[in-house]
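Hello forum,

I keep getting stuck at the same step: I have a sequence, I want structure tokens, and every attempt I make locally crashes halfway through. Rather than fight my setup again tonight, could one of you with a working pipeline run this one for me? It's a single chain of 217 residues.
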Amino acid sequence: MQNPALEKTTYHDTFWDRLFIRLFARKMANAVGERSRQPGYDGFVELSQKIMQGRNPQQQQQLVAVVLQSLVPAPVLWSIRTFFSPTQLVCELNAWFATQLFEWLVGPCCVEVAEVTTESGETRQQKSNVHIKKCRYLEQSSCVGMCVNMCKLPTQRFFTEKFGIPLTMTPNFEDFSCDMVFGQMPPPLETEEAYQQPCLQECPTVSDTFACPKVRA
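Reply #2:
Ran it on my machine without issues. Output:
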């Protein structure tokens, strides 16, 4: 039986999807100092690949952090971090907004209930898990390193540090799904399965090492 992750998904981007893709791609092009030769989402992924070239994981994550911060005005970040603590309501609202704003980037997603352990040690159930059914970015790139360095780690850090709202992202490299749990502090990468994940067979630069070398470089 064929792995569902290998079945290519066809996307029909709306006007607003194409607008967001163009905006994000322009920010990335400015940060890396290069332009993509391809239009639409393909060009967006190509720019991600350019960011990875000649940079170690930390440098890749730092460049993506610059792009993310350029999308949100500094006063807005300060206001959210200062006046909104990561309560259950705030985390649930963030999850809902994520499903409305990021579907162009990651594909269809929905909000599910998650069990979250807060910084104070309290455990609670809340609807703050954004379940991405099959990540468009991971499917298009077929690269563990791009998933971890260009999406997971910088996005976690951006929300946790800049917004003050903890976020943990857990990709599934078998079916390309992912869970984004708002309100959950991200653990050290070395303790996660993603750190042990070998290259995907579809990766353009697949390696036969035990774990993806782009994550550990």
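Residues 74-216 form one domain. If your local run keeps crashing, start a new thread with the error log.
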